[in-house]
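Dear Dr. H.,

I hope your travels went smoothly. While you were away I took the liberty of generating a structure for the chain from your last submission, since the lab meeting agenda had it listed for discussion. I wanted you to have the full record in hand beforehand rather than looking at slides cold. The sequence, exactly as received, is reproduced here:
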Amino acid sequence: MIDIKNPRQVASIIDQTLLQPTAREDQVQIFCEEAVALGFAAVCIAPIWVNLAAKIARTSEVRVCTVAGFPLGFETTESKVKTMQAALDTGADEIDYVVNLGAVKGSNYGLVEAEMEAMRRGAESAVVKVILETGYLTQKEKIHLCDLAVSTGLDFVKTATGLGPSGASVAEVKLLVQCGQGKIKVKAAGGIRTIQDLEAMVEVGAHRIGTSSGKEIISQIAERQEV
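The corresponding predicted structure, in token form, is as follows:
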């Protein structure tokens, strides 16, 4: 487990996220430069900004993450795969894609599994995280999706987009960690804005934290040390 008092260790598990549709190029550039300076695990930005982010991050250990099927998940599998591969071709290292929620709710797990397989195959060795958008799901559905993600070789299950009905909760992160049995990592995302939020997720086994508040969280560590 990371040392919560160590800003660099905390930064090393954060996917610092900027997915606002109105984000300008100059804002994205500053955002990525700050991420490199603070040593975040990754920057998560819209596909249009992948090439810019890759240029800024290439001399650092910060990875470039982008999204597919975001934020609703109802694009075709072919569309998600093409979006992913275009992003990888322009410098992305990791892909967070939204599961087909309609297929989940309709119990069409064959389609869900086929999509996972297609994303895994299309990504080759790149990291793939499937966003479950857990606020829409029953516990049984969460477990079934986690099992499928494990069996298809995905790298992470991720709780939420941050734009759905709810974000990450300690209970569901714990559930996904238990379900994954060490065979898949868990990214907690959605509503994580403070060092206390992050610490609670890490304590139950989250491996990565998705947040747009990474800079503020790192500042909060310094504030704790001054008290």
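Two observations you may find useful: The chain has one domain: 7-226. The chain has a mean pLDDT of 97.

With kind regards,
E. W.
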